Amino acid sequence: MIRHTRSRRLIGLLSVVSMSGCGPGASPASSARDSAGIRIVENERATWTEKQRWRIAAEPTVDIGGADSTPAYMLHRVVNARRLPDGRIVIPENGTGEVRIFDSTGRHLSTIGRRGEGPGEFQSPWRIMERPGDSLLVLDIGRGFRFNLFGPDGAFVKSFTTPVATGAGGTELIGWFADGSSLVRRHEFGTRPPETVTPVRSYVSLFHLGPDGALLDSLGRFPNQTSSSSGMYMWGPWAHEAVHDSTVFFGPADSYEIQRYSTQGALRGIIRRSRPNTPTTAEDIASFREEARRRAAGMGGDPRRGAMEEQLMAKARYAPTFPPYFYLETDAPGNLWVQEYSPRLGEGRTWSVFDPAGVYLGDVEMPERFRVFQIGDDFVLGHWRDADDVEHVRLYTLIKPG
């Protein structure tokens, strides 16, 4: 506890220094104020210099997967992976319903479970969390949002669910807190008035669960996706969340603002960045439609389905501006990473980094065709597709100059 307190004091001191600006007469890069007990941080520009900027190594240190792999290394429909404190990498493999464990170099060690309905078997293994004593907790969303606990030897111990779950489509796990509790979001379906033409936002409820899935707190009701009953509504705000330690980050994504909450739902802080939303253009819409047609043609299928998709696109409506950001992630030291928004699949490689006090440090460029799963103190783990669309799980070194 003393060590954590000293760390927070040091973080606060560093944040004050970073808010001081670049020199005499310069406007501060960031400023902070308190309003009714809520800490509001306003960010005008990055505080890193070019020499201080973090970057991702050009080549991965671990690369699992590939077309010429043996079965244990062949990956299909990987949606998550996690590097454990001892360096092992655990991959839920949805193509086979297995959970595969690799050492720190990417060598296959063992496999847990298989596809099935029995104890220790999976339908759709989704997320992994390490537990004390080298135990593993696996979330299976194919069996009604069920948590499965395995011992250090890979043996099945027990499974449990949570009373707030409404099934795989209605409930999502956001992440685990430091004490093993977790945050989930539950969608509210059918809340939009049936004749609404003006785009409106749906809602989700956020819940704090104990390590055993029991409900600890309800954080409240929050805006989620923007949609319209008259047809597709593209590029409207869509909220995202992330967790770290005992903090919930919630991004409404209607402007560049991210809110901090306690696990009880109390608003503790607001992080803002002076960056207006980018207007959408006719060229953006034409490019989106052409990309949709190209992908549909590449998939083949019934021509009648293609005609139906053309009709949907013809009726689609488009937001006047793009959202300011996409996903939120946190790293091991507590920095918040915010992915830039891109309407084009595979783009949005730039992530903006905010320190634990909410100060905007600068941007980090991720590799092409790389989707982030986990950010550590000195690594980034994620999903990568090669030129032949073959899946890999890769670990890159995160370089932080002196």
Can you tell me about this structure?
The protein is mostly beta strands and 402 residues long. It has helices spanning 2-18, 282-299, 303-315, and strands at residues 30-35, 38-43, 55-56, 62-65, 82-83, 89-93, 98-102, 108-112, 125-131, 135-140, 146-150, 156-160, 171-176, 182-188, 200-209, 215-227, 233-234, 240-244, 247-251, 257-262, 267-273, 317-318, 328-330, 336-339, 350-354, 360-365, 370-375, 379-385, 391-399. The chain has a six-stranded mixed β-sheet with strand order 1-2-21-20-19-18, with no helix packed on it. Strands 3, 4, 27, 28 and 29 form a five-stranded antiparallel β-sheet that branches. A hairpin with a 5-residue loop joins strand 23 and strand 24. The longest helix has 18 residues, at 282-299. The radius of gyration is 22 Å and the shape is globular.
Structure summary:
With 402 residues, this protein is mainly beta. It contains 3 helices and 29 strands. It is globular.
